[in-house]
Specification:
The protein is an alpha+beta fold. It has one domain: Double Stranded RNA Binding Domain (2-Layer Sandwich). Helix content is about 45%, strand content about 20%. It has a three-stranded antiparallel sheet. A hairpin with a 6-residue loop joins strand 1 and strand 2. The longest helix is centred in the C-terminal third of the chain and has 32 residues. The termini are far apart.
């Protein structure tokens, strides 16, 4: 996995603060499945996480002529992955909060 400019800046500025990284997010994904609904341009990505929880992402195009399976899968994948960032961010914040109470 290549490091984005944003991730490089974050790692340089946040060396000591707890944070979520792309590697952490990737480590949470156990299985990825795609489904394109018949006679549509709707692609759904279902990610099963290591704990069994699932997230989904969707993509669709307005015109059947523009449908591209690999592009639809990539967009749906990214949308499902974004949900993991939110979940893991919440868990980190909750953990930091709980530790601040002791």
């Amino acid at each position: 996995m290549t490091q984005t400019v944003e991730e490089q800046i974050a790692s340089e500025k946040c060396d000591t603060a707890p944070r979520i990284t792309p590697a952490h997010i990737s480590s949470k994904v156990r299985k990825v499945e795609y489904h394109v609904f018949p006679n549509t341009q709707l692609t759904v990505c279902c990610m099963t996480l290591t704990n069994g929880f699932t997230t989904t992402g969707e993509s669709a195009c307005a015109s059947p002529e523009n449908f591209n399976k690999s592009i639809g899968e990539r967009i749906a994948f990214d949308m499902a992955l974004e949900k993991i960032w939110q979940l893991e961010g919440y868990l980190l914040k909750e953990d930091l909060y709980q530790k601040s109470l002791t």
